Amino acid sequence: MPTLESAPVPRGALPQDRCPFDPSARYERLREEDPVTRVTTPAGFDVWLVSRYDDARAVLGDGESFSNVDASSTHLMGNKDKLGATPPPGILLRHDGASHSRLRLRLAREFMVKRVATLEPFIRSLVAEHIDRLASMSGPVDLYRNFGLPIPALVISEVLGVPDEDRAEFGHFTASQVDLTLPLEEREAAGAAGQAFFARLVASKYENPGDDLLSRLIQEPSDEPFGFEELMGLSLLLLAAGHDTTANMITLGTYALLRDPDQAARLGEPGMMSTGVDELIRYLSIVHNGVLRKAVRDVTVGDQLVRAGEHVAVVLESANRDPRFMSDADRLDLDRRSAHVGFGYGAHQCLGQHLARLELTVALPELFRRVQGLRAVQPESDIPFKNDMLVYGIRELLVEWDEVVA
């Protein structure tokens, strides 16, 4: 069996040769010649790598043949002992069937379009506040640390009802957990710190409920109320899914638009972000190391038989650039509408996608409108891209500008 060390395929969790927005050229070869190929990841996992769009949707949409019980990044994290383990309470990404439905259906109400829309004034105030802060700074400024990172952290803090005095601590757990340059022990320690934080938070909601997601889930009448540990798990999941991903989308999306000024100039056109957000999500495909599923019965993917018990890693960045899915897929076109898989597909499709869209819809046009002459300071070769993270992005984006307007 080829390994990701030696075979002509990307190394998954290890540094990839994105360019920096195009997936590895080796995925193009795989899509044409070997769209479902067997490899061993650097962490020692044997998986079928799925690179075509139709095959990706077939796997992600088939909850009868494929299980999500093994964590979607287990093949990268080096924690083989977690394979087959009982899913943690509340981590709905690790549940299937009725157990998953019970968790997701109640939580989904909190992330419907109408509910998410009530957060728009808060998000707009955050964006305005952080742009005002940029205006007070001089010299090259790291846009990731001062704009992309804090806004999603404060939004998900608001959703969960994290007290103001605790919000500074709030975002640190996720960054460490998904940093594949850190030893497994450090990542697990970050996870434990996050669990302790959310244990305190959930306990406080039982004692003093407020107008927030956790309090509503606790107070909502139900024949199957969420338990304490389930609420902890849901909180950890929402932090991981709703903070790091959006922070990277804001920063990476900004740089993608700086590289394409014709597209950036269109951000202010009425209705442009209704298609533009999803096109950026497709084009960037920041969940870039393969989404793991386990076959629970023999099943054919494309022309390849996958046996029960074998794992499949669906490469979303490759699927979203498949020319069978769309023509000219390597070009960013904010007018384009597409059924991309940037948010996944099927029963486990991203629960918070409406919130992510809203944050991007507010943040990016307002940044480019108010910060006149925004430009990157570093040459592209010096920009530290997150090739070695579960979620792709930029560690530091130094920018300067001509002026900040009201």
From TrEMBL:
<dbReference type="GO" id="GO:0016705">
    <property type="term" value="F:oxidoreductase activity, acting on paired donors, with incorporation or reduction of molecular oxygen"/>
</dbReference>
<keyword id="KW-0503">Monooxygenase</keyword>
<keyword id="KW-0408">Iron</keyword>
<keyword id="KW-0479">Metal-binding</keyword>
<comment type="similarity">
    <text>Belongs to the cytochrome P450 family.</text>
</comment>
<dbReference type="InterPro" id="IPR017972">
    <property type="entry name" value="Cyt_P450_CS"/>
</dbReference>
<dbReference type="InterPro" id="IPR001128">
    <property type="entry name" value="Cyt_P450"/>
</dbReference>
<dbReference type="GO" id="GO:0020037">
    <property type="term" value="F:heme binding"/>
</dbReference>
<dbReference type="GO" id="GO:0004497">
    <property type="term" value="F:monooxygenase activity"/>
</dbReference>
<dbReference type="Pfam" id="PF00067">
    <property type="entry name" value="p450"/>
</dbReference>
<dbReference type="InterPro" id="IPR002397">
    <property type="entry name" value="Cyt_P450_B"/>
</dbReference>
<dbReference type="GO" id="GO:0005506">
    <property type="term" value="F:iron ion binding"/>
</dbReference>
<keyword id="KW-0349">Heme</keyword>
<keyword id="KW-0560">Oxidoreductase</keyword>
<protein>
    <submittedName>
        <fullName>Cytochrome P450</fullName>
        <ecNumber>1.14.-.-</ecNumber>
    </submittedName>
</protein>
<dbReference type="InterPro" id="IPR036396">
    <property type="entry name" value="Cyt_P450_sf"/>
</dbReference>
<feature type="region of interest" description="Disordered">
    <location>
        <begin position="1"/>
        <end position="20"/>
    </location>
</feature>
